[in-house]
Design a protein that fits this description.
Low-confidence stretches: none
Oligomer: single chain
CATH class of the largest domain: Alpha Beta
Number of strands: 4
Radius of gyration: 20 Å
CATH architecture of the largest domain: 2-Layer Sandwich
CATH topology of the largest domain: Alpha-Beta Plaits
Order of helices and strands: HHHEHEEHEH
Strand order of the largest sheet: 2-3-1-4
Mean pLDDT: 92
Structural class: alpha+beta
Largest sheet: 4 strands, antiparallel
CATH superfamily of the largest domain: Lrp/AsnC effector binding domain/regulation of amino acid metabolism (RAM) domain
Strand content: 15-25%
């Protein structure tokens, strides 16, 4: 795959799409003073280069009744059981993120639950997976920072 060089127009397009992935190309084009076709071609090239790998939908989990967030550190009996444990974790829909980590935990997960009672059920499901020796949970009191744009702008500055 050839190295793809982003220019300022690409950065502006990405900036608008990160803000709202559903922004029509015609709106982006109007704001940038270019044609919608140009926006389409540039987005297509960024997709082909693997810079854009899809789009996402942001849900308001509070309104859906899933406002409880916890992080679960998982200790395994053996590191060789990691893949098996990840496959079992993947079967639990309330585990939204899982990382294989170094340090204290073998695997670190983010869970979403309705409340503490529901979180306890999810944690018990994780704890019951063969190979898991124990878990350690931290409850999120508030998500204070979740800003993809700051990182994106920092990365863009590295390209200059």
């Amino acid at each position: 795959m050839a190295k793809f060089k982003l220019d300022d127009t690409d950065h502006q397009i990405l900036d608008m799409l990160i803000e709202n992935t559903r922004t029509p190309f015609t709106d982006i084009a109007k704001r940038l003073g270019i044609s919608a076709g140009t926006v389409h071609v540039r987005v297509k090239k960024m997709e082909e280069a693997g810079i854009i790998t899809g789009s996402s939908l942001t849900l308001d989990y509070k309104k859906l009744g899933y406002s409880f967030i916890a992080y679960v550190g998982i200790f395994l009996n053996k590191t060789s059981q990691t893949q098996f444990v990840l496959e079992r974790i993947n079967e639990i829909p309330f585990v939204t993120v899982a990382h294989v980590t170094t340090g204290k935990f073998n695997v670190y997960c983010k869970i979403r639950a309705k409340d503490t009672s529901h979180a306890k059920e999810i944690i018990y499901l994780i704890d019951d997976i063969e190979g898991v020796t124990r878990t350690e949970t931290m409850i999120s009191l508030e998500e204070s920072i979740n800003d993809k744009k700051r990182l994106m702008h920092s990365i863009f500055n590295d390209f200059k």
